[in-house]
Write a structure and sequence with these properties.
single chain; 119 residues; mainly beta; four-stranded antiparallel β-sheet; three-stranded antiparallel β-sheet; 9 strands; 0% helix; globular
Length: 119
């Protein structure tokens, strides 16, 4: 399955939001050496377990690229997001605190929150 996303909340929560925060759901194994796991950030791919609502925007990669908002993975693991040409081609790579890419292993436990600008 890789990395899928759930709508966590919109920011700001009042008025017209500037961004959506997406909580990761990771399963399977991380495979190194591919520039990261390809993640699809198209709104139609998000689940909405808390009934926050899924806005239909953006339809294209926003001017301000998506970014890692919060990374609380297993000790010593951090994440890097590399924007793709489209919303469907972003990549998230996982690294150890020794600046080495994580090996071929199960995705680490924890949470990873991505901020996707809506404009």
């Amino acid at each position: 399955m890789g990395i899928k996303f759930q709508v966590l909340k919109y920011v700001p929560s009042i008025g017209a939001p500037d961004a959506v925060l997406l909580n990761s759901v990771m399963s399977g194994n991380y495979v190194p050496g591919q520039g990261g796991t390809t993640v699809d950030l198209n709104p139609g791919t998000f689940s909405d377990p808390n009934s926050v609502g899924v806005l239909g925007e953006p339809l294209n990669q926003p001017t301000t690229p998506p970014s890692i908002e919060s990374c609380q993975l297993a000790a010593g693991v951090y994440a890097q997001l590399t924007p793709g040409a489209t919303l469907a081609t972003n990549k998230i790579s996982l690294w150890t605190n020794n600046n080495a890419e994580l090996g071929n292993t199960a995705y680490p436990a924890g949470t990873l929150v991505v901020k996707l600008p809506l404009r």
